[in-house]
Amino acid sequence: MKKSVRKKLIIIPVIVAFMLAGILIYNSIGEKVRFSSAACSDSDVISKFPDGKNPLLKGIISLTDSTGNIRNYTDKCITNNMLEENYCYILSDRNIFRKYLYYNCTGSLGSGYKCSNGACIPVNSVSCSELYSGNNIASDSSRFNIVFIGNGFRTTEDLKSAAKRVIDMDETSTTPTETTSISEKMNETISDGLMQIPVFKNNKNRFNFWYVDYTKPFTSKDPSTVWKELYNFDLINSCQDTLPNRIIPIFIYPAQGNGVGYPYASYGRYYVTLFDCIDSESSCLGGDYPNLQNGNIHELLHTIPCLGDEYGALGNYNLSKAVNYTGNLSGNGVYQYYVGNSYADCMANAPWISGGHLGNGCGVKGSIDCFSNNCTQPISYVNGIDTQPECCISGKDCGMEVGCFEGGSYADKRIWRSSSSSVLRNPYLGKLTGSQFISEWDQEIVYRVIQKGPAIGKVWKEGQNYNLDCDATIGSV
Length: 477
What we know:
477 residues, alpha+beta, 6-stranded mixed β-sheet, 12 helices, 20 strands, 21% helix, disordered N terminus
């Protein structure tokens, strides 16, 4: 007993001294895995912290044994100043450990730092947090980093809920509830979210989703106040400063009325602004929902893969006659549209036809067979099939069948698109599933953008346009 007590008297002062110095004060082997196939991954490994001992970003250690069992350990705050930082310790391929150390954020980084949400952050700052716990790998530069910044919400939990409705990683946007509140009834009618579109769902390991843990209600809900208080661009840096590629910012807030006069648009990879209609601070008009969720997806398809609008001019902009396309295609428009004078020309030469996609999306592949005889091809303006339901065979989802449909990119004639009723043409289609947003061909373009990857080694800066980073050039796949 005396020998044991003596050891404790020696160890305790050393621990205290290290704690006061603000450096490593304790190592623990923790979980130990003794299998040749065991693995350990650390989500907060970046070039500045290649060993994963990264106090600036909340991370998760995942230990996997030979049977595939996974144990996760998340960085956490022990006190307002003390961080428990997990990292992988690989002694050999048969000896892999989870270890952790303690950082005194104030002692290590200065009096201007504190511990919050599993990371050391400036006292007067906010942190960059995972939207879905355990999903992100911050060190993976091939992943797109999508960051939500929200204002007008009562709490950050409300902000997270709104962001999750848009992303819909776990298919909860359309999950019915047992309660009868207005917001939850609306939730039952909401369309699917972004990650239920097959091309995004099948490539979900290429995306990290974050949120900035800051929000406050607007001082007033009039349009001018919302414009003034929504855009806090400085908050973006709390994520950009810790990530290895240029982030894609999403501003989101509780929608008001019919949205007229309020911010809502995509500026490509620079940033996009979205609505949420279910939050308690929103006051959406009943007729606008669930179409505003479709509108959110429409704007995100402008933002992440840089797809263009597929609607025309007739019926929009107070125009009463068809407008011919006279421009030159650029960016991803080279693949998304075909410029030609006739239906036969499009059917012979459009990139989605030569790519072997004709008829896909409905019925028998290789054949356009989901349209009734009441409508002859080409189905043209105004807004195509979405204003002519009699054209679709009962029980068939002809809106996604790949063919040649005239109109797109703000013109009605001499430009062609691959489907009749993409959400990029008309978001006012009611409740949609992930497979009903865009055609198989448009998803092919998205796939190419995803495979090309994000802007590695670059950073987001206010006032700059980054659409050049998201072209789907064939050959870059």
